[in-house]
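Hi again,

Forgot to attach this to my earlier email, sorry! This is the prediction with NAP bound. I've pasted everything inline since the attachment limit keeps bouncing my files.
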Amino acid sequence: MGNPNVVVVGATGAVGKVFLRILEERRFPVERLRLCASPRSIGKRIKVNGEDLPVEATTPEIFDDADFAFISASTAVSRELAPVAAQRGAFVIDDSSAYRMDPKVPLVVPEINAEDLEWHQNIAAIPNCSTTQMVMALYPLHKANPIKRIIVDTFQAVSGTGNLAIDELREQSRTILEGGSAKASVYPHQIAFNALPHIEPFMEDGYTREEQKMLYETRKIMHAPDIAVSATCVRVPVYFSHSEAVHVEFTHPMSPEEARELMAAFPGVVVVDNPAANEYPLAIDAADRDEVFVGRIRKDSSHPNGLAMWIVSDNLRKGAATNAIQIAEEVVKRELLKPRG
Ligand SMILES: NC(=O)c1ccc[n+]([C@@H]2O[C@H](COP(=O)([O-])OP(=O)(O)OC[C@H]3O[C@@H](n4cnc5c(N)ncnc54)[C@H](OP(=O)(O)O)[C@@H]3O)[C@@H](O)[C@H]2O)c1
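Structure tokens for the complex follow:
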């Protein structure tokens, strides 16, 4: 089989733009690349690998000769388009939450559960960005000493909501610094100079949907149906990279030294943990990097089997675009693409 034909839906979005940059960086081999977005972007042009490509209408026919369809638009768009693309023979890699908990759809972080791709039915999902970085850091620990319970508080960047939220933070910050009063439209409250304990709708149990995703997606990716996760997800006025304060209870005690060694040996995880020199992971350092950074690793003084830590990663890269391209690379390597036609 030659190089794959690729369709990117959501090519003008926060994730889509980074995705195209990473395609170039990783030299992902592509025969024909087609870009789609909403009707308002049709006709715009985007340069990829030196080629000036038009943004096209997202029609069912566009998937006809596609080997891969990367869908990074919204849950509603994915619900509608993923089955259409899959039915027309494309392998769909979906960034939304539409199919993540579907038992027929592998939910994949390649460093952890690439083998789940083997049972695909032409759709694979990437996890929520806050889940991906947490499981990347915790999986090597879980393999050595099964995790029973995780308590996580997130500090999530506005780019996790997309282009409009990035613009809103910029606009509100400027207005307030000039002495004006901010207008909120993307979020229910002002995000500039604020922290919102509210990401996605509230559910019946008092958690938000984002917080529930951290529970159910962690269990599915790590094949650990009994892990308990209690999350509080907070939006903060940061442009790029999510940060997480994580408290983990293991089956047996684990020393911070052992945890550091296990995480440092895991692909894609970098330990930055020298508080004496003020060295710990920071959102601005993680931005535009693919790795997941972990620091402040210490005994949890409230539990004999507990550790506490701080996990930071770029939500648009490992939290979305990089993970999606790694899945495609894994699909190619495992020869899981159906022959075209
Ligand atoms: N942001 C993150 O950190 C992150 C992480 C993991 C997963 N995700 C998921 O990735 C997806 C995209 O997120 P984002 O942050 O990139 O959002 P975004 O910045 O708002 O971009 C949305 C993209 O979807 C396109 N789009 C909207 N309606 C469409 C339609 N009817 N048909 C085709 N394209 C349409 C938009 O096109 P226009 O430019 O023409 O409006 C734009 O390219 C979401 O499902 C999100 O949950 C995001």
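The two ends are 12 Å apart (CA to CA). Residues 130-315 form a domain with the Dihydrodipicolinate Reductase; domain 2 fold (CATH 3.30.360.10).

That should be everything now.

G.
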